[in-house]
Every structure is written in C-alpha cells, then in structure tokens.
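tool_log.txt
---
The assistant was asked to compare two proteins side by side. It first ran the structure predictor on the initial sequence, then on the second. Raw inputs and outputs are pasted verbatim so the downstream comparison step can read them without reformatting.
(1)
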Amino acid sequence: MRSIETIEIRPMNAAHQTGTPIYKQVAMHIISEISAHEAKAGARLPSEDALSELFGVTRTTVRRSIGDLVQKGLLNKVHGGGTFFRGTSVIEQPLATSMISFSEALDDLNLNFETSVIEARRINRPSEIVRTRLEVDGPVYYLRRLRSVGGLPMMVVDCYVPVKEFPNLLDHDFSRCRLFSVFAESYGVEVSHGTRTFCAIASTAELARLLRVSVSDPLLFSEQTARRADEKAVEISNIWFSGRHFKLVANLSRPKNE
C-alpha cells in the first residue's frame, strides 16, 4: 500500500498583513506552501492542532482557513481522516463570463501571485492588426507580463494601450500595479465591458520557455478587447494560458421556454 505524503508546511512570517483577515492569510500561506512543495494528489496536511501551533493562531482560525479552501475546491476534508490536497494545481477562472481580470480572480481565491514585466515599450507604428483591434492610428504602449502562482507560471499577457488616451503609462510599475486600476485611479477611465475569444494553439519556443512547457504543447489562447461605457476601446491583449495549471469555468443557465 502506498504511504500517504504529508505536506511540510513552514511557519508564517511573524508580521501579519494589515487589513487582511488572519484566516485568509493562513489560507494563502497554506496554498503557497502546497505549490512550493509541488504536492501530489492526495497529500495530507498536518493536523489542525499542528497548524494552529505552527502559525500561532487558534484552532478555530485554522478550521476557518481550511473550510475556505475546501469551499474553493482546493482541499478535501475527510471526517476522521484528515485534510487532503485535491491534487489540482489547476486554477479555475470565470474569465468566460465576467470582465474580471486574472489578478482579481486570484485575489478572490486568496492565492498569492507574482507578476513579472518582461517588456514594456512604446511602439510608434503598430501593426495593422493592432490598429484595427484598438481602433487607433497613433502610437501605442506594449506591455508583456508573466503571471505566476506559487512559482508556477500560469499565463503570458501582451497588452496594447493607446498612448493618446494614457500618456506616461509606462511610468507605473506593472509588476505591482494592475492595468485597469491604473486606468481608473490615474486617468479616470473605467473599463465597463469587453469581449474575449478563446481557442487552443500550440506553444512556440518562446512561450514554452516562459510557461515551462514543451514546444508544441497545447495552450489556451485568448484575445481580449476592453472598452469604456461609450464603446471606446482602451486596451487589447493577447493571453496565453498554461493548460497544465489553468481551467476555464463558465456558469451557465438555460433559458425558460416561453
């Protein structure tokens, strides 16, 4: 009989994040540790008593953290048997049904993520495809970012934004800032709605290197257009998702017969 792996969880930093409930901080730390140790399906977490002592919090707090992760489908709790990792490092996202950003969705899941800016520059003569999709004739900003969860690369995002609409946009640090938040807070531009299309493509050598997959591995590819309420396009992006760690989820309803 195969022995059950117990996930080694390291203590949290002594200083807690101001404004974030402690049970959420515990939940985020548990998932980060699971990702860091690349835990396999069925791996067991330490007991609630052990985690309570390790984190210096009450057992009630640990129980609430675990319950939160169980509800999100990341853990499975067996009565009398312990708590187990469900074995999916796949991040489920509602990007087909909501104009929510990837980072906002990760926040909703209480997952730590990192953003790396690979390239950021001004393009004075964008391609015809970019001009057509963004509905502009002038220069654009180009921003390529890599988003990772627990050290695992999840997606590569190429964004194009009109310079005229957002002067000096690249003065912001987009390894820390969210693009749509900068639109709203620095330029008074709110993203109201948009469109996303999805299809499967084969990974190129460059994408394989960034996402740590093999060349020709299947990726989920999305084209996005973000608009203001007056229909003006303010951003277009090309997004490549790692199929190993990403699942697209859509909640659907069937219309009633008249």
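(2)
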Amino acid sequence: MTVEDLARLAVADVLEGRRWLVLTGAGVSTDSGIPDYRGPGSPVRTPMTYQEFVGTSEGRQRYWARAHVGWSRMRRAEPNATHTTLMRLQQDGRLTGLITQNVDGLHERAGHHDVIDLHGRIDRVVCLGCREITSRADLHDRLTRLNPGYESRIGEIAPDGDVVLGATDGFRVAACPACRGDLKPDVVFFGENVPKDRVRRAFELVEQADALVVLGSSLQVMSGLRFVRAAHKREIPIVIVNRGSTRADDLATLKVDAGCAETLAGLAAELPGVSQTA
C-alpha cells in the first residue's frame, strides 16, 4: 500500500459519518492552469495592493493592461477533477458548505451552488463611484476596442488573471458606463478587507460543520486562517490537503502533503454512499 493510499484511508477514517465544510485555495486551481502565489516552486510575486490601485491612475492603468491580457487566457480555464469531485460530494449531501479563496469562479462553473467567494469574483467589475456591478466580459470587449491587438501581447502568466508585461503607459483604460467612475475587478485586493457580511456567513458555516477540510491553501493570510482557528476552537476534526507546509499545520487533525485532485478522488472512493459520477 502506498503512502497516498494510507493518507486516503486515514482521511476517510477521520471524516466518515461527518458532514464537512470545505475551504479551498489556489492549489485547487493549478490543475486548471492558473498559477498560485505560494505553492512549492512558485516565484516570488508582488501583487498590486488596494492602496496602489485606488491611489494612482498609473496603478490602475498598469493593472488593467496586464489584466486585459491575462483575462483573455484565464476565461478559458476549465474546472478540473477537484471541482467536479466537490460538486459530486455536495450532490450526495456530504458538505455543509464551500468557502473559496479563489476568484476564478471555477467551482460555480463546475455546478457547485451556494459557494462563498471569500475574495470575490474576477468575472465581475465594480465601479468605485456608483458601485454598479457589471460583467467582466463586457469590459473586456470595451478594452479590446480601445486597445486593438493589445491582448495578443506575450507575458508570463501570473495568479488571478494577471500577466507580467513591460511598459503599459500606452494602454487606454475604460470608465464606468453609468457614471464615468473608476472601475475595479470585484475582488478583494491585498490590503483590502473582506466584506463583513461575507465573513459572517462563513463563520456560520463553521458553526454548522462536523469537520473542516482545507484543500490547496497555505493559509498564510488571516482571511482563511481564521476559519481554521474557529474550527479548532470548536474541537471538530480539521483535515488539510496541501503541497508544502501551511500556517495551520499544528491545528490539523490530519495533514496530507499531496495534490488535491488525487487525494480528494481517493477519499471519495473510500466513503460509502458517494456516487462515482457527477
């Protein structure tokens, strides 16, 4: 029996008969071709902060130039085996809820419903003036008309739909169609707070769960770590599946240092009554 087999059996032993809350991070989406920030071998990233974005027109120009190129690729990403297995577990009544730190919307595209998108959704855009929410696809079409041929530029793909480019000072940024205000992706930037209602709903899910399963998150930021701490305080089992160490390894009932897709698929196969097809 392999180490992976033993890990799956151990997970099944901890979780069998319980309904779980799942918290997912960037390691879930890497199998869909979306890079993460902190996985093993990931280069050091310096993502734009909220303060930089709202503080200067140059910051917004640089962000939207890079994001315009990145979105043309990111929107083609498809759900992977982890997303589809989680959908199957939800259909079979195994889950009490799902919180994701990802902004790619792949859980919803896989058919998962009632997802708490903790950090927002990259496929939506919010106006910083009138707060109207609009479609990222519509903005992409507008930016394409303003900057013909720009999205064909080549650059290193970075997390969250970003692409590393050189000079971006010639890029033309689109304004809100309703009030001409500045547009921002409807996501929580570094240095920005998660909306309080979203946090409250996530804590409510922790209170309802019999166990917490963390998939593909290093839990380096407090926005996700606080839910693991709340689960630990409730003394419910905590299972963490992640390549590399996490900030909550000492709180875990069981830590599995392996990929999410294969571990979750093996776990689902060990649990009685879980359907094997979506």
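---
observation on (2): Residues 3-270 form a domain with the Rossmann fold fold (CATH 3.40.50.1220). DSSP finds nine helices and eleven strands in the chain.
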